[in-house]
Amino acid sequence: MFFKIIGRVSDIETIASGKGIREWRRLSKIYGGRRWRKLKGTATVQLADGRMCHAEVHWYEAHGVGAREYKIKRILGIQ
Fold first, then answer.
1. pLDDT in the model for residue 1
2. How much is the mean pLDDT over the chain?
3. Number of domains forming the structure of the chain
4. Spatial CB neighbours of 22, under 8 Å, sequence gap ≥ 6
């Protein structure tokens, strides 16, 4: 599913960090970086069909690499 994050992500929480992330080896191999964290938050997103909605998004982030691989986990409300 393709989408675009509109505005800022709020209510950010860390879900897992370091080797607690199942895919840390793959992330390090593809993007580099050492201290990976999996985060979640809520944001307004625009879906591929143009609809806007409020959703819970998850992503991976590492120091020096930045945020990678955003994904929508739950749609909280359509605007």
1. 63
2. 93
3. 1
4. none
The answer to whether 38 and 1 are in contact (CB under 8 A) is no
Q: What DSSP designation does 49 have?
A: T
* Contact status, residue 10 vs residue 42, Cβ threshold 8 Å: yes
Strand, helix or coil at 65? coil
> Chain centroid to CA 77: how far?
18
Q: Are 76 and 44 in contact (CB under 8 A)?
A: no
How many CB atoms within 10 Å of residue 60?
Answer: 24
Residues above pLDDT 70, as percent of the chain: 99
* Structural domain boundaries, residue 39: 3-78
